[in-house]
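Section 5: illustrative case.
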């Protein structure tokens, strides 16, 4: 999946966010490793000549984790004395 995102960034000159949203629409549940996200950001820098701040990685990563670990619809086990 990381290779697909890199391809879209380089060949179509899309931003990482645009490429990510495009792939998510077609294959939900993707969760790129934060190291790969950082590498994709470097590719994006090379294409656009822009550098994001380090918070962009965290924002991207956290946004994806929130989608992946949406626990509101999951029934929680009863609390015990051990927890």
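Designed sequence:
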């Amino acid at each position: 999946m990381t290779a697909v995102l890199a391809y879209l960034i380089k060949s179509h000159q899309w931003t990482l966010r645009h490429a990510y949203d495009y792939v998510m629409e077609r294959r939900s549940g993707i969760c790129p490793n934060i190291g790969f996200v950082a590498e994709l950001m470097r590719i994006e820098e090379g294409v656009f000549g822009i550098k994001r701040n380090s918070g962009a990685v965290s924002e991207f990563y956290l946004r994806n984790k929130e989608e992946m670990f949406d626990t509101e619809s999951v029934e929680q086990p009863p609390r015990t004395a051990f927890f």
